[in-house]
Amino acid sequence: MSVRELVVLGTSSAVPTPRRNHNGYFLRFDTHGILLDPGEGTQLQMRRAGVTAHDLTRILITHFHGDHCLGLPGVIQRIARDRACQPIHAAYPADGAAYWHRLRNATAFDDTTDIREQPLTGESADLGGDPGITVQARALAHRIPCYGYRIAEPDGWSLRPEALARHGITGPAAGELKRRGEVTTPAGERVALHQCAVRRPGQAVAFVLDTAPCAAAEELARDADLLVIEATYLHAHHHLAAAYGHLTAAQAGAIATRAGAHHLVLTHFSERYDTDDDSRFAAEAATAFGGPVTVATDLCRVALPARRR
């Protein structure tokens, strides 16, 4: 049975706290295991969450501020130590290639050749290497080069039983119709897939971390089933958000609304906030977004919403 869920490994911004580890997100999407922004302590958080090196198929780095990448040495060394032989594509801003190589070679260990680097340049990129899904990157508005990511499956089809019955299509013929796009019935009628099915939107997850409000954030989040987005500050500190290229919870909610996202996951919180502030983040986001809001906590799991039909 396929599993589609977000495992949150860390939710703090620049400074980890006793309650919040540095950033870290693992998206399990069927056979794909995507690790995004492994901050300091990610290897331990993976163990606590039951995520192994063998689960990883891709690493995505938004940018090279420490809270988004200081866990890379431990994760890469774990991949090599555990002999996780599957190819692992790793995307990161090309402008930060020097940081990538320093982190990858931070200590003495037997490196692995199974990590396939994909340095990103320009405003957007479509990343290959993942059968059954697409991975897109878009440049965000931060103080240093930073990318957001969108993971999506192609749209599919849902067969309509009444239409199949009307055309006399039963049993294996229905599967052939879905697979090939058309079928010839025993009566000699040629039936196309669109005559017996409706489009089913593929599921999509967007990651928007470390950015000021920008069009690219909304493009990534467009109609996303799950939008994982930074909410570093509450509105009371909106001047800090503007100064440092971050979002408030209300701004995150507004992006979700304009993009038509379906479930909002807030994360990347300043160390100035504590447990009592969680409800304030949810409330501020809800002033701009009417859908479900999750204020992420370390090691929480968020299942993708049910498929839309």
What is the residue-mean pLDDT, rounded to a whole number?
95
Task: Find the structural class using helix and strand composition.
Answer: alpha/beta
Helix content: 10-25%
User: What gyration radius follows from the Cα positions, in whole Å?
Assistant: 21 Å
Tally the structural domains: 2
Low-confidence segments, given as residue ranges, are none
Biggest beta sheet attributes: 7 strands, mixed
CATH class of the largest domain: Alpha Beta
Distinct helical segment count: 9
CATH topology of the largest domain: Metallo-beta-lactamase, Chain A
Under CATH, the homologous superfamily of the largest domain reads Ribonuclease Z/Hydroxyacylglutathione hydrolase-like
Order of strands in the sheet with most strands: 6-5-4-3-2-1-18
- The global form is globular
- What is the name of the CATH architecture of the largest domain? 4-Layer Sandwich
Query: Strand content of the residues, in percent?
Result: 25-35%
Keywords: Endonuclease, Hydrolase, Metal-binding, Nuclease, tRNA processing, Zinc
Function: Zinc phosphodiesterase, which displays some tRNA 3'-processing endonuclease activity. Probably involved in tRNA maturation, by removing a 3'-trailer from precursor tRNA.
Subunit structure: Homodimer.
Enzyme class: hydrolase
